[in-house]
Amino acid sequence: METQQADYQALCSPGEHLRFCPQGYTCCTLEMEENLNQQSKLDFENLVENSSQSMRTTFVTRHKKFDGKLKSFLFIVLHL
């Protein structure tokens, strides 16, 4: 059992400088942590982008309809 612990510690390093990975002995490096952080950020942005697409389309469509009606109304009012 002690041999396994020593092998583990030889492969890993203290992680007190890491922000997200465990602070104790870990196999996670600063570079690996940064890559995981960037990938998580991209995944989150894509999820928000995909889930809000329908709402954005609805908003743009209704905005165009409203804008068209407002322009027609202003044209009528200004030419009375």
From TrEMBL:
Pfam families: Glypican. GO terms for cellular component: cell surface; extracellular region; plasma membrane; side of membrane; synapse. Keywords: Cell membrane, Glycoprotein, GPI-anchor, Heparan sulfate, Lipoprotein, Membrane, Proteoglycan, Signal. The keyword Cell membrane applies. InterPro entries: Glypican. It is found in: Cell membrane. It is a lipid-anchor; GPI-anchor. One of its GO terms (biological process) is cell migration. Cell surface proteoglycan. Belongs to the glypican family. This is Glypican-6 Secreted glypican-6. It comes from Takifugu flavidus.
